Amino acid sequence: KNEKVLQDILKQQEEHMMDLIDKSGEVTVRAGPGRGVQGGAKGPPPQHLLPPQRLNGEVSQLRRSLQRAETEAKVLWEEVRGQEPKVDAARVQERILMRQEVDKLRLLLLEKMDENSQLSDKY
């Protein structure tokens, strides 16, 4: 049962992400949920493209959302695999938050290493 719930959550997140990003990689604004992916090789172009200055912010937000969803999925899959008769929701939430914090710290470390590399290349 929990595996089915997890699969449903992952499917919903994937559908939401696909709804926001069309096949050409452009972020579009939809009139409502449940719409198919617009754009692609054939058919009319997306109805409402975001201005270029907002596109980078939207892409960053989508990356963070994707990372959050992947982190939650990892923790939930671990819980399903090693499932005990009764799953402690608070413990699962704590593990998700800890994993997100680790991912955030890992990203900050990589950014700092990249900055240091760029500085050492300059001088």
Automatic annotation (TrEMBL):
Give the protein name, as stated in the record: SPAG5 protein
Q: Which domain of life is it from?
A: Eukaryota
One GO biological process term is: regulation of attachment of spindle microtubules to kinetochore
Encoding gene per record = Spag5_1
Compositionally biased intervals (Gly residues): 33-42
Chain positions covered by the region annotation Disordered = 31-53
Sorted alphabetically, which InterPro entries does this protein's record hold?
Astrin
